[in-house]
Amino acid sequence: MTKTVTSIHWFLFHVYFSYVLLLTQSAPQTSLVTHVPGFNGSLPSNHYAGYVTVDENHGRNLYYYFVASEGKPSEDPVVLWLNGGPGCSSFDGFVYEHGPFNFEAAKTRGDLPTLHLNPHSWSKVSNVLYLDSPAGVGFSYSKNETDYITGDTKTASDTHAFLLKWFNLYPEFLPNPFFIVGESYAGVYVPTLAYEVMKGIDAGAKPILNFQGYMVGNGVTDEQIDGNALVPFAHGMGLISDDLFEEANVECKGNFYNSVSDNCSSKLEKVDQAIDGLNIYDILEPCYHGTEAEEFSASSYIRLPSSFRKLGETERPLAVRKRMFGRAWPLRAPVRDGIVPTWPQLSNSNNVPCTDDEVANAWLNNAEVRKAIHTVKESVVSSWDLCTDRISFNHDAGSMIKFHKNLTSRGYRALIYSGDHDMCVPFTGSQAWTRSIGYKIVDEWRPWTSNGQVAGFTQGYDKNLTFLTIKGAGHTVPEYKPREALDFYKRFLAGLPI
Description:
- The protein is an alpha/beta fold.
- The chain has a domain at 29-222 and 395-494: Rossmann fold (3-Layer(aba) Sandwich).
- It is built from 17 helices and 16 strands.
- Helix 3 packs across helix 4, helix 4 crosses helix 14 (401-409) and helix 7 (242-252) runs antiparallel to helix 8 (262-275).
- It comes from Lupinus albus (White lupine).
């Protein structure tokens, strides 16, 4: 009996020791980021960066930057973050929104930005995995350039393959709850990828991911609903008159995205003229077109009532960037089936509003930074661009509503959030499509609070579907409202009421 007990104790000790060894040695040490240029001091948690090959034959490689949680990395959720475009790097979220650092522009051109710890980083409560996807975006690349002709379904398939391989590299995080989160055109990336993950789990794909749910911010969803969202938004925000709204409604018969008559087109042109000078990513923020515009906008801003100015204020210690280039689609038009032009491709024939992304470019194109974060050599990826024109992208997955229905009906939790001053993908569209699914309302429209203040409004539906607005925020919610964004984020991950 004693021998048997001793054997059992030894077996349990061996299992425990093996588990501890797994926890301490599983993450590939060659991917560990030991220092971050521009930041002085110890990193608040472990950072890892590198590549995962999703297609050996083509040499298709996706780049990731992984920030371990500053809380309990062995228990906190793992969150995959995706920016949109299509064609935009998820370093957008890392640099400007919810990464571990706030970036202060260098005083001298050519110098590195100065990095400060971000008190509202999402890594405070979760492990965050930033991914450049698809191949051709950011630091991701392929040795076969035909891979740069891509689309929704191929991107979802590749990203699912990436996840399976990534969790094999970091198996200690497999037990953690896993969520997929993104914004803008990631309104397509997130549900299509979530569907691939769900199918993989059903099919027994290894490793088995502990997938719990997803979040989408100001996300592209459905051609008809997105297309009809702008005019009601402009009217509700007081950007167009009652008369013009009523005339457009009559002439367009409620169809604002697909003009049915010359009279309808004429009214929509008037709407465009009325909102033409606004920053479509946040109607409260000035739109910069050079020195004169900056001076005019600043003086106009000072004349605003303080209550209106405060609506768009942020606690971020560094200014919200002037540039909102390329991470958002559509530009006053819905995404339709077929080729979706990237912003650099559009800029040949359209003015790109509010441009200035110097901080991210200065940091990520610095040779010292690239070496520290383990990017491929410049001979392979010559430079980092926030949004690329290297890819040709096909929207081939149709409306996202069917994906959301499928996922929520299977019990996966979904939070659809919207900065309520974004005019690119207005909250009116997200509000409409979440309501259109037809689920029973289980948490009637009400305010939600952050730091003792009303931060927005929310409505909860059956099957764990929640719609939420963030008051005074633009297209990239954590950039404008970092404290509020961290609040709803951590409550959602924890399964708590918002």
